[in-house]
Amino acid sequence: MGTGKTVPLWQRALAWLANLVRLAALLSCVAAAVWFGPAEVFRFVAVFLGLLLPRWAKAPAGFDFSFGLTVLVAAWSGVLGWYEALRWWDVGVHFLTTGAIAAMAYFVCSRIGIVPGIRETAVPRRSARLVLLPLAFGVATAAWWELWEWFGHNFLSEDIFVGYDDTILDLAAGTLGSLLAGGVMAWWSSRRAGIAGQESSTRIG
């Protein structure tokens, strides 16, 4: 008789939706090749490859879907010119996308053993680690994002908007998004640990 747990329907639904987002990213590569140019093709190929990371890192299905959707929307926002047309959209996307990438960086580093797993060590130490490390990853991501925009503006297309105020706002948004991501990861980890403890007590009882 098997001892594995049955995967809840909602988790299977989220995993299916995450795969649907990956399919949309692959189709975006085709669309970029037909209607846009090499820079857009490169952008969506990078996005598609990035969306394979949550599966490899064994990230939760909900995060897999949220990460994929956020990154894909961010990519299309650049292609369609939404960042220039809607200033608040640019800041919001930097907030959400940098936070998502920061959390993904933690899952990847955990998968290859650079940092402890999300459920390892005592709860206080785990909570601090899950806030501070994604924050550090996110600040680094925000800085590299701005470097990429500078490179793109100077060497690829002058349509890519850069400016001092824009850079500061984007860095601030990315930092706050990463801090939120770390807080959510700490909350999720503590919640899962509490559920596991209750299940263990129930079995013993």
Describe the structure using short key phrases:
mainly alpha, 205 residues, globular, single chain, 8 helices
Layout of SSEs?
Elements: H1 9-35, H2 38-50, H3 53-56, H4 61-79, H5 82-85, H6 87-111, H7 123-155, H8 164-204
Helix pairs in contact: 1-2, 1-4, 2-4, 4-6, 6-7, 6-8, 7-8
Notes on the protein architecture:
There is one protein chain. Helix 1 packs parallel to helix 4 (61-79) and helix 7 (123-155) runs antiparallel to helix 8. It is built from eight helices and no strands. The radius of gyration is 19 Å and the shape is globular. It is mainly alpha-helical and 205 residues long. It has helices at 9-35, 38-50, 53-56, 61-79, 82-85, 87-111, 123-155, 164-204.
